[in-house]
Known about the structure:
- The protein has two domains: 12-96, Winged helix-like DNA-binding domain superfamily/Winged helix DNA-binding domain (Arc Repressor Mutant, subunit A, Orthogonal Bundle); 100-261, GAF domain (Beta-Lactamase, 2-Layer Sandwich).
- Helix content is 43%, strand content 16%.
- It contains eleven helices and nine strands.
- The strands form two sheets. Strands 4, 5, 6, 7, 8 and 9 form a six-stranded antiparallel β-sheet that branches. The protein has a three-stranded antiparallel β-sheet with strand order 1-3-2.
Amino acid sequence: MFMTVSQKSNYPIFQTLPDNDASDAEGTPSERILIAVEMISLHGPLTYKALETSLNLSKAATWRLVSTLREANWVRFRHGGRLIELDPRLDELFATAHFGETEFIEVAESMSSVGRKFKVHLDLFSPNRKGDMVLHETSRRLTITAPVPDAIDEGFTLAVQAAMSPAQLERHLASIAANLDIDNARHLRGAEARRRIQEFQGYFWGPSKRYVAASVSGKMGSPAVIRIAAKANAIKPELLVKAFEALSVMLQGKVQMLARGQNTIPLP
Length: 268
């Protein structure tokens, strides 16, 4: 994420952990640090035990790693030292980074393949840094007279939010709330809003069943939503379900998660 771990690092933080620790998991100290930072970024704040389990390290090795990160001011503690989270400076760096282009190259190839086989359109939308939904990939042949329909309804917003990690969702909601008045910001970040996101089933059907759309999380965690629609704006729910099932098979190993792990979508 920060460097190629096979290269010798000029950063002091990568030179502070010993290379020969028999109790550690496989990998160099630099690799373990990078994995720990990514883990805390995506799923933090984390307890020592959660980080220890995720990294497959010993308790002592986890303590040394976290101490190294703390001395470098890369992490800080909450709740009396029980929870570990990224320092706000690094958190902001990850929040403004955009990995979507490299993450979704393989996804685009699968979308094109499914689109040709089932004669459907597939569009992938992902939020930009401002939180606005933008078209990232499509299987369509775009022309001035045949633009991609806008993804502006509430279902797309929920689908993307449901694909976010807790840390990503917190940043996302905070960013949107910053531009709203107090009452609307409170509603956006309130318990009801979070409940709806948590209960989102991973997919939704569009008006008149003309399309189905599903949450997707990229290899590096970028949230997105894939929409599958029949050509000529036809109503063919059975065809859309078959196309989704084929896509879910093709995307195994190419994304972190699709439709919250569902391999099939029931007919409406």
